[in-house]
Amino acid sequence: MNIQQHVSLKTLNTFGIDAIASEFVDIHTKEELMVLCSNFNLAERNLLVLGGGSNVLLTRNVAGMVIKISIKGISIVDETNDHVWVKANAGEVWHDLVLWTIAHGYGGLENLSLIPGCVGAAPMQNIGAYGVELKNTFHELEAVAISDGTVHSFTNEQCRFGYRESIFKQEAKGKYIITAVVFKLNKHPQLNTSYGAIQQQLAVSNITRPTIKDVSDAVIAIRSSKLPNPKVLGNAGSFFKNPEIPTSQFETLKQQFPEIVGYPAAAGFTKVAAGWLIEQCGWKGKRVGNTGAHKDQALVLVNYGGATGDEIISLAKTIQESVLQKFGINIQPEVNVI
User: Fold this and answer.
1) Active-site residue among 23, 92, 113, 164?
2) Residues 126-166: pLDDT tens digits?
3) What is the pLDDT of residues 226-251, one digit of tens each?
4) pLDDT tens over the chain, length 338 residues
5) Is the N end or the C end of the chain the one with fewer CB atoms within 10 Å?
6) Where are the alpha helices (DSSP H) in 12-112?
7) Is 279 a catalytic residue?
């Protein structure tokens, strides 16, 4: 375990922001992390934990320790005739895990194909796409306590998953580092193709009896057509959450804006497409200095090269204000702003 000083994080975040970490350590095993947490009094230090760096916006240098989680490995820990429990370590690339499950014929993660980031970050915000959320297949996770290096397990219920929410963004924030996640997958996949875009993509490919690979390929095609590759154009995917508003408010807005896009949420609430709101405010494809909203998906803020984190957050705040003024809806960032 090598603790380095004054390390650039530019290649470790998908926005490509050049920030400096006072201290940096790359962790490759759970045991290394346990030693680090038990011997270095991390609870008293300023910490930033990175996986793929795909859901973070750095607005400053990190005057503390950055811990990069690079713990690899995928294995089967249990199985029955109908189900298999797959353990993926936190440093695995999320999409690589999805492709592994598809190659083995295990269903449940195919709708979550091509989501950027690593496995360890996935439970923190209960990642979701195309009608599926991580909590649907999540069994349990393993995490190391920052305070003393002890290992703890969290069940689905204990994680208290919500829309882009979990206990790790609330009262357990900054207290644990996730090292592995176990998923309960189906050996006899039950496909979820209810999302309209998936149905359309399957139809384009003349697929009437899709497999999990067909669904994954459809999702990959959809995402690739809408979302810029962070290796080419700096971004963190969807920057804002889709807001949930009272259905009564949605119905009122629908009278004024008949094309507004919404989906049923919790009882009495409707989830509104944040991308549609932002586009209606004229931001789609608009560039401001070195940043802007992407030309194909207004929900994605991008770094055209040389943008600072402050520039991007300034744009985000301006977009928030315009949406609030036009629709009376407060949209919130999905990205973790540092």
Assistant:
1) 164
2) 999 998 999 999 999 999 999 999 999 999 999 999 988 99
3) 889 998 999 999 999 999 999 999 99
4) 899 999 999 999 999 999 999 999 999 999 999 999 999 989 888 999 999 999 999 999 999 999 999 999 999 999 999 999 999 999 999 999 999 999 999 999 999 999 999 999 999 999 999 989 999 999 999 999 999 999 999 999 999 999 889 999 999 999 999 999 999 999 999 999 988 889 999 999 999 999 999 999 999 999 998 889 998 999 999 999 999 999 999 999 999 999 999 988 888 999 999 999 999 999 999 999 999 999 999 999 999 999 999 999 999 999 999 999 999 999 999 999 99
5) N
6) 30-39, 94-103
7) no
Residues 244 and 333 in one domain: yes
Within a domain: 223: no
Backbone angles phi, psi at 127, to 5 degrees: -55, 150
**Is 60 tagged catalytic?**
no
Residues facing residue 181 across a β-bridge: 88, 141
Domain count, the chain: 3
Vertex 31 angle, CA 26 and 37, to 5° = 70
Q: 278 with 298: CB under 8 angstroms? A: yes
Task: For residues 309 and 293, state if they share a domain.
Answer: yes
| Amino acid sitting at position 129 | A
Same domain, 64 and 79: no
| Calpha distance 228→106 (Å, rounded) | 28
Q: Looking at 110, 238, 244, 311, which residue is catalytic? A: 238
Q: Among candidates 62, 4, 5, 133, which has minimal Cα distance to 336?
A: 62
Q: For 122, which DSSP code? A: T
CB–CB of 215/111 below 8 Å?
A: yes
DSSP per position, 249-299? HHHHHHHH-TT--EEE-STTEEEE-HHHHHHHTT-BT-EETTEEE-SS-TT
- Looking up residue 14, the CATH number of its domain turns out to be 3.30.43.10
Whether residues 267 and 280 fall in one domain: yes
